[in-house]
Automatic annotation (TrEMBL):
Signal peptide feature range: 1-18
InterPro entries given in the database record: Amidohydrolase, Bact_exopeptidase_dim_dom, Peptidase_M20, Peptidase_M20_dimer
Protein name listed in UniProt: Amidohydrolase
Originating species: Mucilaginibacter rubeus
Protein residues bound to Mn(2+): C133, H135, E169, H200, H404
Pfam families hit by this protein: M20_dimer (PF07687), Peptidase_M20 (PF01546)
UniProt keyword list: Hydrolase, Manganese, Metal-binding, Signal
Peptidase M20 dimerisation domain residues: 220-319
Cofactor note: The Mn(2+) ion enhances activity.
GO molecular function, one term: metal ion binding
A biological process term (GO) from this entry: diaminopimelate biosynthetic process
Length: 435
């Protein structure tokens, strides 16, 4: 009797395994067939980039594509966002997949024929516009995922919500946008999302590889403004002044002790950076005030709180010691939480990634001190954010142009791995939840 029970269980399990393998084979075939179309989409987006909250042309192309697949589409979410809902043939969980859409105010320098020549006005200045972070790749990949999954609609045990998000790179002062705004406008509701997956191309990871990290994977970020006020004087008579430039120099140097002396770097990294300093307009005039702008990066709420406290203490007390005053605003205009990969979810979905790219090509990565507003989705539902290789095979990560630079470059041959990864994460999560 026991043997017959075991045999019956094995017979019951075989169709499920066969179906899973069949769906994975379908994903592989369909994704491979779309490779050239993905490249075409990506190059079009790359040649016509748009800044955050201005992705009008971009979102129209995406919406038209989703509608052509029979996907229910909502436009104008958080200004220019596009959301598509695909209901599978069977009941099950709601899986959200996200791609960001905006470019950066960067003048492109790459020698590719589809390089951007777009110019616009940003923060009162004429700037170039470039997809210098890979969002063009993300959109093209998710458009292909939508095409693959919609063609397999009858076999899906659940619903897929495709989130094409504006303004991940932030917006001009005074505007709202990005993932935080999409969450406020209900993108994770109606239907209510159970889990969210996303990926980011990486120009310094070899093509064909996927990297991941459970827990804190990208830093939480606060921007900051420090205004130092002193007393103006002729540059020839500095003893008549309270010099805000010298005071600012002392503050900047003292801020560097926070990471070296207050952060336990054996547990988590942190960053304190001053990225801009503005004061004065002539060589022989000591100005009355100086403005500094900077960024704080951390991986835990406790470290974030400590960074804010120490920056405020050091800036105000250093200024006081110099006879000046300092006003500190943190955050000044933006704050992103830590991009936190739910450890249990990450562990459960790791086999899906390994079967997609091969175990040798799925690698644990160290924390990334860059930030991502994907974290706003992860604050509400469990999420997994992975990195997709975009560096040519055999390349040197130390020499590959980094993100947010004029020479940023992506090898397009690895896009299929990204499509397969998001499709398989979606299907495997659904099937695991409906067993």
């Amino acid at each position: 009797m026991r043997a017959s029970l075991i045999l019956s269980l094995c017979v019951f399990a075989l169709p499920a395994v066969a179906q899973k393998n069949n769906l994975r084979a379908q994903v592989n075939t369909k994704a491979d067939a779309l490779q050239q179309q993905i490249v075409t989409w990506r190059r079009d987006f790359h040649e016509h980039p748009e800044l955050g909250n201005h992705e009008v042309r971009t979102s129209a192309i995406i919406a038209k594509h989703l509608q052509s697949l029979g996907i229910e589409v909502t436009t104008g979410v958080a200004t220019t966002g596009v959301v598509g809902v695909l209901k599978g043939g069977h009941p099950g969980p709601v899986v959200a997949l996200r791609a960001d859409m905006d470019g950066l105010p960067v003048i492109e320098r790459t020698p590719v024929p589809f390089a951007s020549k777009v110019k616009t006005t940003y923060n009162g200045q004429e700037v170039g516009v470039m997809h210098a972070c890979g969002h063009d790749s993300h959109m093209a990949i998710l458009m292909a995922v939508a095409q693959v999954l919609s063609s397999m609609k009858a076999d899906l045990h659940g619903t897929v919500k495709f989130i094409f998000q504006p303004a991940e790179e932030g917006v001009e002062p005074g505007q709202k946008g990005g993932a935080e705004e999409m969450v406020k406008e209900g993108v994770l509701e109606n239907p209510k999302v159970d889990v969210v997956f996303g990926l980011h191309i990486n120009s310094q990871t070899e093509v064909g590889k996927i990297t991941y990290r459970p827990g804190g994977t990208m830093a939480g970020v606060n921007d900051m403004q420090i205004i130092v006020k002193g007393r103006s004087a002729h540059g020839a008579y500095p003893w008549s002044s309270v010099d805000p430039i010298v005071t600012s120099a002392q503050i900047i140097n003292n801020l560097q002790t926070i990471v070296s002396r207050n952060i336990n770097v054996t547990e988590n990294p942190a960053v304190v950076t001053i990225g801009a300093i503005k004061g004065g307009n002539r060589s022989n005039i000591i100005p009355e005030s100086v403005e500094m702008l900077g960024t704080l990066r951390s991986f835990t709420p406790a470290d974030e709180k400590m960074l804010i406290t120490r920056v405020t203490e050091i800036a105000t007390k250093t200024a006081d010691a110099m006879g000046a005053t300092a006003t500190v605003k943190i955050p000044y205009s933006s704050h992103y939480p830590v991009t936190y990969n739910d450890p249990e979810l990450t562990q459960k979905m790791l086999p899906s990634l390994q079967q997609t790219a091969g175990s040798a090509n799925v690698l644990l990565r160290p924390p990334v001190t860059g930030a991502e507003d994907f974290s706003f989705y992860q604050e509400k539902v469990p999420g997994l954010f992975i990195f997709l290789g975009g560096m040519p095979k055999g390349g040197d990560p130390l020499k590959a142009p980094s993100h947010h630079t004029p020479d940023f470059y992506i090898d397009e041959s690895g896009f299929g791995v990204g499509v397969k990864a998001l499709c398989n994460l979606t299907i495997d999560y659904m099937n695991n939840k409906t067993k």
